[in-house]
Request: fold
Amino acid sequence: MVMTPEVLTLSEAPWLFTGVMLVKIIVAFVATLLIVAYATYAERKIIGRMQTRMGPNMTGPKGLLQPIADGLKLFFKEDIIPSQAHWFAFILAPMMILAPAFISISVIPFGGDLHFTYDGILYAVPMQITDLNIGVLFIVAMAGLGVYGIVLAGLASNSKYALLGGIRSTAQMISYELAVGLSIVAIFMLSETLSLRGIVAVQQQPLWGLESLSFIPNWYIFCQPLAFCLFVIGSMAEINRTPFDLPEAETELVSGFCTEYSAMKYALFFMAEYANMITVSAIATTLFLGGWGGPFYGWINFLIKVFAFMFFFIWIRATFPRLRYDQLMFLGWKIMLPLALVNIVITGIAILLW
Amino acid sequence: MLDIYLPILVVMGIALAFALGSVVLSRLVGVKKPSEVKLAPYECGMPLIGSAQERFSIKFYIIAMLFILFDIEAVFLYPWAVMFKRLGIFGFVEMGVFIIILLVGFIYVWKKGALEWE
Amino acid sequence: MFKEFAKGLSITLKHLLPGNCTTVQYPKQKLEMSPRFRGLHRLVPAQDREKCVACYLCPTVCPAKCITVVAAENEAGEKYPEVFEIDMLRCIFCGYCVEACPMEAIEMTDAYELANFSRDDFDFGKQRLLKS
Amino acid sequence: MSDQVIVEKLKEKFSSEVLNIVEFRGETTVTVKKEQIVDICTFMRDDFGYNLLCDLCGVDYLGKAPRFMVVYNLYNITTKQRIRIKAPVEEQDANIDTVSTVWGTANWHERECWDLLGIKFNNHPDLRRILMPADWEGHPLRKDYPLQGPDREPYKGRLS
Amino acid sequence: MGVEQPKTLGSGFVTTSLDKLVNWSRASSMWPLTFGLACCAIEMMATGAARFDLDRMGILFRASPRQADVIIIAGTVTKKMVPVIKTVYEQMPEPRYVIAMGACASSGGIFDTYSTVQGVDEFLPVDVYIPGCPPRPEGLLYGLMKLQDKIRAERNTFGAAIGVGDVVHNKA
Amino acid sequence: MITVNHYLLLSAILFAIGTFGVLTRKNAIVIFMCIEVMLNSVNLTFIALSRHVGNMDGQIFVFFVMTVAAAEAAVGLALMIAFFRNKESIDTDDFNMLKW
Amino acid sequence: MEVILFYLTASVAVISAIFVTQCRNPVNSALNLITTFLCLAVFYIMLESPFMAAIQIMVYAGAIMVLIVFVIMLLNLGLAVKERYTHGMAGAGVLAALVLFVSAYFLGAGEATGTGGSVTSEVIASYGHTELIGRAMFVDFLLPFEIASILLLVAIVGAVILSKREV
Amino acid sequence: MAANTETMTINMGPQHPSTHGVLQLILELDGEIVVKATPHIGFLHRGIEKLSEHRTYHQTIPLTDRLDYLAPMSNNLGYVLAVEKLLGITDEIPERVQRIRVIMTELTRLKSHLVWLACHALDIGAMTVFLYCFRERECITDIYEKVSGARMTSNYFRVGGLADDLPDGLEGEIRTFAESIPAHVEEYEGLLTGNRIWQKRTIGVGEISAEAAIDIGITGPALRATGVDWDLRRDNPYSGYDDYEFEVPVRKGCDTFDRYRVRLDEMRQSALIIIQALDKLKPGPILADCPKVVLPPKKDVVNNIESLIHHFKIVTEGFKTEPGEIYQSVEAPKGELGFYLIADGSAYPFRMKIRPPSFVNLQGLPQMVEGKLLADVIAVIGTLDIVLGEIDR
Reply:
């Protein structure tokens, strides 16, 4: 006999709800942390290989303990707060940049429903920390908050490099936030929802609603290729990855906004970069690649797609030089922004004509 | 309401606790040997020229300002996009007018050279 | 434009494939030194003593002035260096001493693992140079 | 135009200025008085096409009078010819006019010359020390300046 | 005279293991400052490049002294450069190490002249000297491994971190 | 039980704080921020009342308030910068160009 | 639960709002103002208006405050600005506050997330807040919406003119 | 007053990742735009010119290695040629010596250009090119090591010849390497030349006209990228360069991109020259027949008392030259490297002035970057290919 699963709610089963929630959060959090740690390792390995060298292989077996050694070392380093720095903002900045990245993870669906029976009742629990009906807006808002980390780092450090790096970075991030924010509007026109879970659900239908094409999933990458390109380029810029890594551009601004940061606070910046990379990959997966849909079991599909994105980011980093600041702004404002608007108009016309 | 937002609150708490905890713990266990030079701002090893609190170009400000205005536009676009299929051609024209008016501003800014750096 | 981007990407991807790695894993693998490599000096021993006859050519020709020789005479009336010392920290491994030595009494080995903790560890006297 | 012809013409124009002409290993060196050095250099540049000032340096002939010599190595990119001009400078109040107006490159060369040899270049736009720290005392390339500096003995081996 | 025993956490199993852990992390993740002075800097770059690959040992070059652990003085130190090096070194967080790479940094080398400092140890506490002009990349790698040995031989690193006593340097 | 009055009281408090700030501070930027506090307190009132009466109008109003706030921020701060360039100060006492 | 959350957030909001007015350093003021905004977003969520909460963060915290912080950086007001205070008009502020308190008091208590009117909690839950906003905005408030674009246009032009170098 | 409140002075270097050593630049920035750039040098001033006055001609050779440490053999060559000219033995240098010198200096040019490209690309953010270039550079250092015994400071050329002959089998290795160069250059070009980002970063950046370049004295590839067709190897040939057929790459763009392409073309030409020289390489003596200058062969020293005395005399006293002064320049990878030697008849140079190309080229930096963006400064420093070792000496 097939039972319709109950939705777990706080009011009906408070303890179970809380327990499941905590388990989900902890799993997601630990997984993210692990991916963050090993993303640094993977990046060093992959870029190393692309550059005909080995990458870390002397710390632990195959160098697998490298991220842990780095983390521990930074943990035990002396923490310098420059005397003329605005100490509160100086400490707040790395947290402000890391926290939004982690918080954004909480609305991303990793997989379909998980069914389990407790106390004789079949429950369906989505593999997602929580599904907001404004999920995408939430992420955009969090990305907006992430800017403060960099602004404050630049402002608080009382160093010219940090100031310049912070300012550059902020201008860059907000410019591309706009392009990214506008590029995904076309998705909502198609999906008619802002909930990430809803968007994934729409993408699991056959392509363009045609049953004959059912072997191709209705991923938005197929009907919104322009939006996808804009999103990927824009988010690369938003998370300061090469070729948009100007704020940290070592060869210009030493370390940009984190020039004055040492020890664990620097580690947080470092982690935030990779956490942001994961977040962005996860969002791109959800919005354009059909989330957890695919040949394997839910979250495995999801992780494969996320890792593919991350590999792409790493690959780009190994290949391309860095843009110049004015070119970056040019690209953001004069190319991506109009293109995003054009994309919206085209999508609108297409929908109206369909 | 709490059903949905409680987990976010918890995640927020955990994320902040993690960030704060690691910073504070690291500060506690790190060696502390401050000196005047160490706490001075980094300047490639040279004595400071001028103050780090110098001003920078107005252009950055223009970028931030434009961002606000276009951000508002994006904010208007979200509910519109979600409602688009239900609003139909009417909604399309409506937003078209809105975007065109804003584009006028954008083109003005472009022509004024506020987006140029050289 | 996209063609060029793709070209760049393909070049890096090609190198990702196994077999392109050029790393020599130093402590495990070591490169073979060329026979002419100018590493740590060595005083060439003769039957019962060093070949060196303390002719002072090497300290004279040394551009870094890092060789100290004090000559003495043994019972047989042969000149020998009572002190022969090279300040390894100052030595620039130019090979002039080897070139100048008429007796071929000094040569350069392929030892390059010379790093050490303090200046005192670089006390390369006659005995140490004979052994190296 | 061969070197002889150029030298003859130079002599013609600045007969009172040219002190000495030497040829050594196929290179011509003209020694001139320092007073009209800018005019001579401009003349060399404009009339003979010596548009590249390869090198400018000072030499300290300690014990001779005049003690210093400022040397200009000129090159003509079109005819691929070189010529050398030297101008003596006395030890007392060592100075000479700058040629940075003739060739821009002289700017740093002259600064270096001032820095290392203490020859002043009149009308130089920016005569500061270039290689040594701004507060350095003495001019190290002078022959009477000890190699190791005034405050240190030369290194004589580990044992000393 | 009576040498006072340095204040430490003791040498119990736990403290020793913690020390080992901290030492291990420090030895496995030495980030040098991107700081080249002269010829040796090129060999330092070559060491970082594909054939010798410093990244294998977990070594990344960091541009800001705030994030660096090791300063490799690679090249001739001139008197004009001394204040700069001092400042940069001072701005590195503890624990910090100094490697004098090459003859010039170690002792002045061939440049026994007015403008050159005769060895960086005149003003910095050098941990490892690497002779050579310039040393081979393997020489630098060997020097870095020597430094790792030195770090691993340190005692009371954990104690010093939590504010009990200072690091005791044992002979490696 | 949180009633609409709670929200209204809170927004009154915030408004008062904002007003106080506007009236006592001299730093134009701080005054600007205080104005933002006041605007937000009004927004809170709008939304609370809109929910109270079960009508979307208030929320739409908030939307427009935000738009106006954004425009105001852009223009206001631009004014401030323009002023600062002339006077090297953003003290309101120096805003005396319009004094009669 | 909700009550605790309300009071907690409310107190944070009020305290940070006070700090906004009292901090000597504009940077601190700005940081506190961000906190106030975030608290208000929490209230909006409690009032079942998640879309408003999101745009509160996006527009206020994410955009307007960035601009303010930029200006603070731009004008180099980061550290120790000497400032005079006037307390002469403080009385007016207190008076304003009193008026508001009284008016709030006389309004009478009622359900915050009301059951009355057409937009009930159930409607929001089923139809979606964003959709409701969209409908209201693009059907009922068409003209203000278009006028908003003109306002933004004017703001763009004004701000560019004001901040251009020639002025 | 209002005008200068918006500039910001920042200090780039001496400890900065992209100043290629210890250059210090004081930049006045208006936003991202450089209003004024002032280079400060001298942080690596080691006193080589002064030191050479206290070393014999022979002992000065290792000093020249350390001038432009990216191209040690070019410096060796310049110095050795200068001393040979001073001694008047230029015509007595055996052909094999000249050929080997050409091979080694062209390898050096490749080596220097590889490091330049590596750093230039890294500065602009293409870090993979850096590693590829160093991979090829390792081949050259291997050749260096096999020839001279050191990877960098070769100290291989001697006045009147070479320290040693090429080891057996190395000719083949050099040939293989030289033949592989075009393919490698293709690879770098694949990553950079066509890449839009690279083009955007380099085209029109750091422009300087030919007139300005000559006025400042810029030489080498930087001058050739402004359209001036001048190469000392062809125009004032030395060491038998007139024997080879090669093109002098010239471009007219005056910008960073053209400087980049000129250097890449030079790399290809260098490979051609190496192959030609290898083709023409015949066995022969590796030292000139000038017993007063060159050391006698080692086996004679041991067996022949006359040679031994001779050996002692040259080593202890050094060789003496006629008094006189000469200026000898070579086309180093960075431009015209000149040695101005004054001899007073003793075994020591009376005055050695080095004309370092980077020193002069660096003077053009302010002109090239003022009015440009901060990131362009990095690109321009990279494209000037400066080496502080020879700037500061």
